[in-house]
Amino acid sequence: MKDVHMELLLDTADLKAIAQGIDVFPIVGVTTNPSILAKEGGVDFFEHLNKIKGLIGEGRSLHVQVVGSDALTMFDEAVRIREVLGKETFIKVPVDHEGLKAIRMMADEGFHVTATVIYTEFQGLLASMAGAEYLAVYYNRIKTQGEDPDTVVRNLSSPSVKAKVLTASLKTISQLTAAYAAGSEACTVGYELLCEGLGSFPIQKAVEDFRSSWKSIHGDNSILDL
User: Fold this and answer.
1) Which residue of the set 92, 164, 171, 205 is catalytic?
2) Which candidate among 120, 157, 180, 194 keeps its CA 20 to 30 Å from the CA of 163?
3) CA proximity to 167, closest of 116, 98, 109
4) How far apart, in whole angstroms, are the C-alpha atoms of residue 132 and residue 77?
């Protein structure tokens, strides 16, 4: 049976965002890919990922994507990643013909695998059967293609699917909450979007109203002064 506890991950390689994010939000891991790492400029691949690992500590997961075009190269890259970053590192593998083959190879050797670039239920089902532990479903990209990402998430979140759905490509808070509502066990999202979700005007106004009410009675004294 699946662990139905919801998980929240950060989809970034920005060290400042990661440090701030884990300080505020219940973050259980960090996901990266070549495009995310490219946003950080010409950073050294393993040096930067080791910095991320140092920030998040041993209790959170780190997901790192291979870039090879064939299964054997992907597998060799996974071996190298695990050698440098540790055996608990999750290897992200795109689900196409070669990727599916690589997932099977990695799973047979005890690697932690996150299947990624998932647009369809078929991809997710195959990746789960091949041994992936997470299925990174591209929510917004599915939606922009005119398909229903909630259905993909819901069906892949079925108890008969062993892997956990890790919904990615989330562009709004409503997409994030919809993914969880559809059954996603985990979601990965940018730090800025999480901040946006807590920083809306109604929320901030309510907080300020409470503080004004307190000040009208107690002035500049805090609870600690009473």
Assistant:
1) 92
2) 194
3) 116
4) 17
